[in-house]
Amino acid sequence: MNPSDDAPDSLQGTRIPADISRPDRVFGPFTVRQALILASAALVLYGAYWLVRPFIEPLAYVVLVIPVAGAVAALALGRREGIGLDHFVLSALVHARSPKRQVYAPEGVPPLPGVVPGRWTEAARQPPAAMDMPYEGATTDGVLDLGRAGRAALATCSTVNFELRSASEQQGLTAAFARWLNSLTGPTQVLVRCHRVDLSPLAHDLHHGAAALPHPALERAARAHADFLTDLARADNMLGRQIVLVAREESFGRRPRSDAGGGRALQRVHEAARALAAAEVTVTPMDGEQCADLVTAACNPDTPAPTTGPEGDHA
User: What angle do CA 153, 156, 157 make, to 5 degrees?
Assistant: First the structure.
């Protein structure tokens, strides 16, 4: 008898592509980028050998260039945080050269007025730089205009308690999520972000609404719960979790059409809502105001997000 017949709830495997955007290997085990880096380094080292060969022995030159060749090979073939080491080093250099203090100032950062004493100006050091926002605007439908990068539509997603399900239920949820992944036709990101939660507005509403409850016991319970939330708010360590689904449509020209990319991004969000419903995940598209609030919170992550009722994020 097959052992799987005796265990109908055994979890079956579901094949999901690990990295569908991985570059193709066209020159043996190397991609085009890796081959170009290695070939360029080999040509430079070979040309340098022909320049210095009247002054140095071949074996000595090989010993000298071994560290250089090893560094180039590590740069071309190494990976860090899921990306190529050359891209990682380039991003680190760009980050090191970028200003660390940035403010949202589309008109530019004005200089300090002349009445400010010189020692204060020296103490302030480098003035903040104008922040280059990653988007140019948002429509009322919740589509972000990313300029040359295209358009993006955002939606919030609910969570599923996977561990409390049986093996067959887990298999069904995994299969539904895999079907959605296999149906993707464009860049899609699932972002899990943490943010601070301000419970003061919720406690304030409970205190003021307790008197209108129909029974004194309910009023006492509401006031006690409001006091409990007030104590939690004083701790200043309440964190909420939000899952954001981002569907992006790339631009294939200098400027995307006004509504074409945004319409396709919204369509993909609605398709995700229908597909993930089978996995018991509720996908709620975000409107323009919610998208603007999300971008504002991302630019200033220390700002607490208010919780105004049971519909808000839970800590």
Answer: 125
Residue-wise pLDDT for 41-52, tens only, equals 999 999 998 988
Q: Cα separations (Å) of 53 from 42, 48, 67?
A: 16, 8, 19
* Residue whose structure tokens are 């008109």: 107
Task: Name the amino acid, one letter, at 281.
Answer: V
Which are the contacts of 76, defined by CB distance < 8 A and separation ≥ 6? 33, 34, 37, 38, 41, 84, 85, 86
Instruction: Give residue for tokens 């003061």.
Output: 200
With vertex at residue 134, the alpha carbon angle to CA 131 and CA 140, rounded to the nearest 5 degrees, is: 115
* Verdict on whether the full-model pTM lies above 0.85: no
Structure tokens at 268: 């993909």
Dump strand ranges (E) for 79-235: 79-80, 83-84, 102-103, 129-130, 137-138, 143-145, 151-157, 188-198
Quick check: 242 and 124 in contact, CB under 8 A?
no
Euclidean distance between CA atoms 134 and 144, whole angstroms: 10
Element (H, E) at 170: helix 167-182
CB-based contact 108:92 (threshold 8 Å): no
Q: Report d(CA 294, CA 303) in Å as an integer.
A: 11
Q: Which tokens in the block code for residue 172?
A: 């069904």
Cα 179 to Cα 170, 245, 280, distances in angstroms: 14, 16, 13
SS3 category, 15: coil
Cα–Cα distance for residue pair 307/60, rounded to 1 Å: 69
Q: Which residue has the tokens 């149906």?
A: 183
pLDDT tens column, 154-211: 999 998 888 888 989 999 999 999 999 888 888 899 988 887 777 888 888 888 888 8
